[in-house]
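Reviewer comment 2.1 asked that we show a complete input and output for one of the modelled complexes. We chose the adenosine-3',5'-cyclic-monophosphate case, as it is the one discussed in the main text.
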Amino acid sequence: MPNSKERNDEAEVRKAPLFSALDDESSATLRESMIPVKVSKGSTLFKEGDAGDRLYVVVEGKLKLGTTSADGRENLLSILGPGEMFGELSLFDPGPRTATATAVTDARLLSLSNDKVIGWVTQHPKVSLQLLGRLAQRLRRSNEVLADLVFSDVPGRVAKAIMDLGNRFGVQKDDGLHVNHDLTQEELAQLVGASRETVNKALADFAGRGWVRLEPRAVVVLDLERLLKRGR
Ligand code: CMP
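Response of the prediction step:
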């Protein structure tokens, strides 16, 4: 009998697009063919430019996907948590890894080699549809991020980033939505695409207005409506 942690892991993994179209039996078979990987906080799983031979599903913990410009500046594309998949671009569009994956917290993952992914996709058309759906979602989100970089100011982007992290990692409590993002101020700034100073100023302004409470590596959203409006 699986214990409660194993049941929780199972529930998270089955949210991933590779699994979401599968019945219990196929899901268990797929899981058996995946290799568990552990990464400790701060360590790099792979680097932008590396050759990619497998994709990953997050079971527990958080990872960041980032790119570095020629002059050394870093930009974060996404923060991933349980049930999210990454590392598939270099498989479907053969080429080097498009981003560096680093653990933000200690994390556990499952990995599946490219040849096995191809096997599953060709045998289970519904799995391909789920993967296409996830890629389409990501493109939609990337378009939005691009539009925000052009049309929104930094406070608007900060509000949006908090809401996005809140949707995925937030826990509603009596005093508000606790968003334990686990990011440093520098990482939050890299995610928003602005300097640390400007992002801190926006956060301090939100806190001053009573919309959020700032905690180390977390934000508690006290006035969701105002924050939503600011991020629109
Ligand atoms: P791959 O290029 O193999 O390795 C880096 C991974 O980061 C990539 O596959 C995707 O899974 C993921 N990735 C790349 N760009 C984005 C993005 N804009 N948003 C979210 N994830 C991304």
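The CA atoms of residues 133 and 180 lie 27 Å apart. We note this here for comparison with the apo prediction described in Section 3.2.
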